[in-house]
Amino acid sequence: MSPIVSVKDLVKRFDTGFTALDGVNLDIEEGEIIALLGPNGAGKTTLISTVCGIAVPTSGTITVGGYDSQTEFRQTRSMIGLVPQEINLEPFEKVINTVRFSRGLFGMPKNDAYIEKLLHQLSLHEKKDAKIKELSGGMKRRVLIAKALSHEPKVLFLDEPSAGVDVELRKDMWHVVADLKKNGTTIILTTHYIEEAEAIADRIAVISRGEIKLVEEKTALMTRLGRKELRVELDNPIEQLPPELSDRGLELAPDGRAVIYSYDTHADRTGITALLNDIQKAGLQMSDLQTRQSSLEEIFVGLVTEDQKR
Amino acid sequence: MNLHAIKAIYRFEMTRFFRTLLQSFISPVVSTSLYFVVFGAAIGSRIDQVEGVSYGAFIVPGLIMLSVMQQATSNGSFGIYFPKFIGTIYEHLSAPINFLEITLGYVGAAATKAMFIGLVILATANFFVDIEIQNWPAMLAFMVLTCVSFALLGFIIGIWASNFEQLQLIPLLVITPLVFLGGSFYSISMLPENWQTVALFNPVVYLISGFRWSFFGMADVPIGISLLAIATFTGLCLAVIWWIFRTGWRLRQ
């Protein structure tokens, strides 16, 4: 199946000479949720703005649904909904009117039944006749989503959907995104909350200094680059590792009450059985065992730091 | 042509106008009445007639033009500046619309508002003086053309302006002087000969003169030239807007 959004060799250089996107290639499949992860200033918003038509590419091509974003902009833009990072709304307008306006702007005929349904879905229906300025921050963000979905787009861009949003609302937002995915909407979200990507994305793209560093299935990425850690709690604290254990690459916890062993889950042998035997032979009494997997955050920080060192 | 988009923008802008209808209505009525008190009664009582028309009636077309030009410019500029100011412009830039559609929506709404105010002033003037309009269709056509062309100019100013001061700058420093010096309250023939020549470089002279012709059948410049002037002005504004959207000047990154 051909991708719904395809970005090829995209370069965006601003008049100031700053290169925000430096040869970006990215294919987005229909119906998936892809998270664009990257530190501040990596080019996430510029990439979204360029695909949506707010910024003009310096070179390279973007196709949406097979149409070129420059020469066939009516087709590409009709397929895209954009939820911007900042809450930009006309304060004195009624919720329903501003959503109706967006639908018309995107060339769709009036359809109040659809808009009412959308407002219900986003728990905004009770506030449909309220003025925007009367709404809470979270509600305003929902209005932005309603506006972006008003013309029934196939692809939805969410630029930092949960920036400055409390934990409860963030979880709420994730439910909204999950519902949209069920309806077949393709979702591209940028975030620097890694737990957000971990919670909702199918694939992860890491962007740094205007380049895509990697694109991979989330689970595959976490198993490929993720490491596991075994923590062996000791009955009695020790000051240093016994000589029998010194060449096993173990780490002693600062309080001396545990030894920590990192291993690769994909290796033929994890070495756990031999390690536990050796700990016993060294005369250490074990009181508990714990394992934990490294999070996407640790993987991400590792990737970006590596890139910045270069 | 994305007709739904044009309609959406037009309706959105008109809703804003109707929300503040009272202010929109009262302010031109009050200012027109003041002009009549000052120019019509106080000064007009010392001027009998201008080229066969009573001074009170003579100033009506100029007065309408003065307000129409100011209103069309300020509505046209505010309409597009406001989304830029509050950030909702992202929606226009990411929508499947071209320059003509966005312009038609905003300029259409700004011109409609100015036209409404022009007609309110005409009605108010009727309370002060007897006005006979010789050529109704020409009067309405001139008013529509002026509303549209100055709304276009306002639209350009709205895109150019990066703060509220700049938004006010051109209407205050350029349009108001040009309108006052363009024969709103006098005939160009009343000026010394040298100043008559200078006045001919003022584009507003042609508009007011043409408009006055539709009322009283007399004009400072031939009616054909007036029409040509307004057509050139409209064409020029459209060309600038086309260029703005082609290059994304002050709009797209």
Notes on the structure:
The complex is a heterodimer of chains A (310) and B (253). Chain A is an alpha/beta fold and 310 residues long. Chain A is built from ten helices and 14 strands. In chain A, the strands form three sheets. In chain A, strands 6-7-8-3-9-10 form a six-stranded mixed β-sheet, with helices on both faces. In chain A, helix 3 (95-105) runs parallel beside helix 5 (137-149). Chain B has a two-stranded antiparallel sheet with strand order 1-2. Helices cover 77% and strands 2% of the residues of chain B. Chain B is an all-alpha fold. In chain B, strand 1 and strand 2 form a beta hairpin. Chain B is built from ten helices and two strands. The chains are: A alpha/beta (310), B mainly alpha (253). The interface between A and B is medium-sized, with 36 and 27 residues.
| SSE string of chain B | HHEEHHHHHHHH
**What structural class is derived from the secondary structure elements of chain A?**
alpha/beta
Number of domains of chain A: 2
Measured as a percent range, the helix fraction of chain A is 25-40%
Could you name the CATH topology of the largest domain in chain A?
Answer: Rossmann fold
Number of strands of chain A: 14
Low-confidence stretches of chain A: none
Mean pLDDT rating of chain A? 88
Q: Please, what is the average pLDDT of chain B?
A: 88
List strands and helices in order, with pairings.
The complex is a heterodimer of chains A (310) and B (253).
Chain A: E1 5-13, E2 19-28, E3 33-37, H1 44-52, E4 59-64, E5 67-68, H2 73-78, E6 80-83, H3 95-105, H4 112-121, H5 137-149, E7 155-159, H6 167-182, E8 186-191, H7 194-200, E9 203-208, E10 211-217, H8 218-225, E11 228-234, E12 251-252, E13 258-263, H9 272-281, E14 286-293, H10 296-309
Parallel strand pairs in A: 3-8, 3-9, 6-7, 7-8
Antiparallel strand pairs in A: 1-2, 1-4, 4-5, 9-10, 11-13, 11-14, 12-13
Helix pairs in contact in A: 3-5
Chain B: H1 3-19, H2 21-43, E1 49-50, E2 53-54, H3 55-86, H4 89-94, H5 99-128, H6 136-160, H7 164-180, H8 193-199, H9 203-216, H10 223-247
Antiparallel strand pairs in B: 1-2
